[in-house]
Amino acid sequence: QWERLWFLILTSSFFLTLVWFYFWWEVHNDYNEINWFLYNRMGYWSDWSIPILVTTAAGFTYVTVLLILALCHIAVGQQMNLHWLHKTGLVTTLITTVVTMSSIAQLWDDEWEMVFISLQATAPFLHIGALAAVTALSWLIAGQFARTEKATSQMLMFTAYLAVVVALYLVPLTISSPCIMEKKALGPKPAIIGHRGAPMLAPENTLMSFQKAVEQKMYGVQADVVLSYDGVPFLMHDKTLRRTTNVEEVFPERAYEHSSMFNWTDLEKLNAGEWFLRNDPFWTAGSLSRSDYLEAANQSVCKLADMLEVIKDNTSLILNFQNLPSAHPYYSTYINVTLETILASGIRQQAVMWLPDTERQLVRHIAPGFQQTSGLKLDAERMREKGIVKLNLRYTKVTNEDVRDYTMANLSVNLYTVNEPWLYSILWCAGVQSVTSDSSHILRKVPFPTWLMPPDEYRLIWITSDLISFIIIVGVFIFQKWRFGSIRTYNPEQIMLSAAVRRSSRDVKIMKEKLIFSEINSGVETTDELSLCSENGY
């Protein structure tokens, strides 16, 4: 019973660490968001994603090795005999995994949506892998089935295995992926918008970053606008300047002040590039050329007007705005100041996607050519009433059906932040019009979705795989039954574990009696030898 309990714990730990490892592997798209999220919680920047991934991989590998060894023991009719060190390690791994999974679920439950989205890209291939694993497991199951003496145990074992196999055969009925489609139905490639410029190639929201985005011939860029205390619009994502500037060195007593409470003359004194080379948030700083490295190190806080001058000819623009503190002198007029700066730059109005809901009617009156964009998920009718023509949402907030409905209503959808080619491919197949990305230089080189499969071809692969698996499983059960049915010898350990080859109870009884008498005779012979040695004086 204890061995069964430990095997249950081992199996549970395997599947739990498998899910956790898959989760951390697939959220690679959001590693920078995870680090930024933890930065806001802890107050200092550190790359937590890679250590967590490495630790998770190590735990999963450890549990997998233990499970393989346990199955090998079972295959030859022996107990697992886990050492207490392994039991301690197993329980520690299980508890740590449960705690970290619960923490992520509470702190950032939205990220679990990523798992379900990733299955649209991986489920067809994971199904084939799981099918191969369960088919290979038939050798062990068939062997245990042939060795088990009790018909009830045989029936339970066979029924459980059959249920798993049948469920796995039918899993494709639940798989839904937009990339299971005819090639001719594939829509145009989604346009790519650089998130804060090109943040993998240069410090975010700096002039260099937007210059790199323009060089990459991006469809557009996204920027975060703040108004300085003296009314100069500049670009900054965080509420404070701590993460992306050297404010703690230049103005240490003001490091935690809101960035909008600084005059532009003070902001000009800050370096906005050294942090990028020091923290290396995307692990790309080492790949920069010597000239780009030096240029990045000397970046300063960027004015909105300077950025507009760089992108105004051929690039679209999405603007996010920070809410200003109530004590700010431009608290009630920052929209007007920003609007004046945009119109004065000469950028085409049709190239600007206006996101804030604040003063939307005023903006529509002053700049009727702006594309009114919403950051809230609304139904199509409501959006028409508000004059919205575009949606800007996180990729986890919309379904494939939502994209289809918005497209039919002649509404454009932009999703952020999309960094991985597989995610870009899924959204491409779903019909998304544009995405915002940190890795625009990578996505622009994706010529076609990572995979595209016609439904008829997928069904053929599914049915063929199931048939091959079924034939192999039946063959293995027949072979194992024949194999163990012809064995006449017995392993004493197998008999003690009730894992002996199935024979009539009379045969097993005779074998046990032979083993007992053999031990008794051996003991008697040993006693006689000792007595003889004593008599001879040895």
From TrEMBL:
GO terms for molecular function: glycerophosphodiester phosphodiesterase activity. It is found in: Cytoplasm; Endomembrane system. It is a multi-pass membrane protein. PROSITE patterns: GP_PDE. Its main location: cytoplasm. Residues 190-447 form the GP-PDE domain. Keywords: Cytoplasm, Glycoprotein, Hydrolase, Membrane, Transmembrane, Transmembrane helix. InterPro entries: GP_PDE_dom, PLC-like_Pdiesterase_TIM-brl. The keyword Hydrolase applies. GO terms for biological process: lipid metabolic process; positive regulation of neuron differentiation. One of its GO terms (cellular component) is plasma membrane. It comes from the Eukaryota. The keyword Acyltransferase does not apply. SUPFAM superfamilies: PLC-like phosphodiesterases. The chain crosses the membrane at residues 5-25, 48-76, 88-108, 114-143, 155-175, 460-479. PANTHER family: GLYCEROPHOSPHODIESTER PHOSPHODIESTERASE DOMAIN-CONTAINING PROTEIN 5 (PTHR23344:SF6), GLYCEROPHOSPHORYL DIESTER PHOSPHODIESTERASE (PTHR23344). Belongs to the glycerophosphoryl diester phosphodiesterase family. This is GDPD5 protein. The lineage of its organism: Eukaryota, Metazoa, Chordata, Craniata, Vertebrata. The gene is Gdpd5_0.
